[in-house]
């Protein structure tokens, strides 16, 4: 008898599983709007020219392949923190931000979740580790935290009537009512899956209101630069919380904005109240990382370091990142126009109001399934489409397919 005979098949990840179903579909007009990876106007994966240049500089430098430190490349971490917090950020200038290079956004989330899980034991508190996340949120968030032993709860986010706009009052009420000592997960910009963010005024209001609570704020920043095309603008929310004195946790991913998906490049950080606290926290991060994967990969971090550390290359990257964001915004407009041209009289303004890689169409599970069956247009069952999968050749077809199931 096989040692694994009793093992049942685990459910496929809903987003990654969609790729397989799509690949098996014989349709010649099929369109995949599932996974969140940028595609160019020909529907192909895209390597930014600035990243190609940085990579060739890295390779031409004949670097060795020694292990990185447990918390990764120190220069990469420094540049990443300046990129997110801004070089003039007080906690950075005062040397009180604990940080580590990690395995992209997901890896950072996992390490931070473990830190949250350990915190009560480390500080001698009897508090249960709890994290509140938006309803809805990225499909992997809850699993990452649960696997680390953190209890997951939800706060209201999307308006349950419109299904395409923010329920700000509901969100604020839930956060102010959250159990003291808990962690609150916030999307720094371009909320996934909805593309709906609080306005700058709402962020400010939230920061002031949350100052009166005993909650640990945790920003997941997977789209800095990619959301609006301006990396500074996309960091405004998290920077304003830091300015207001919140000791945030932050996870940064370079998957989307630098197009370094498979290289697994990211950073995590925690704003501390002193350099002593920072040193203690970093030692705890090392204690989590060392038995988990020992140290992060080096290649992608070298590329990011080359870009962020060189003014010319960085300016080039800024322009190219903006081009990606612009193409996505253009596809949003074309999709909306296409829906009108297909004869839809519904209000699709949310498609152009939402930002980032995804549009939350408001299609029901049944409509998504019908669109898959009738037109071979694939998106996740929550009605989220990856706008990056649209291009000039397929946008009218997709608009007609959406109209066909929503009229
Ligand atoms: N967080 C959010 C909100 C995301 O949308 C994603 C990717 O889709 C991630 C984190 C993690 O991405 P990665 O692990 O590839 O950096």
UniProtKB/TrEMBL annotation:
GO cellular component: mitochondrion
Protein EC: 2.6.1.1
Known cofactor(s): pyridoxal 5'-phosphate
Gene Ontology biological process terms from the UniProt entry: amino acid metabolic process
Keyword Transferase: yes
Alphabetical list of CDD domains matching this protein: AAT_like (cd00609)
GO molecular function: L-aspartate:2-oxoglutarate aminotransferase activity; pyridoxal phosphate binding
Misc note: In eukaryotes there are cytoplasmic, mitochondrial and chloroplastic isozymes.
Subunit architecture: Homodimer.
Name of the protein in its database record: Aspartate aminotransferase
Species, as recorded: Pelagomonas calceolata
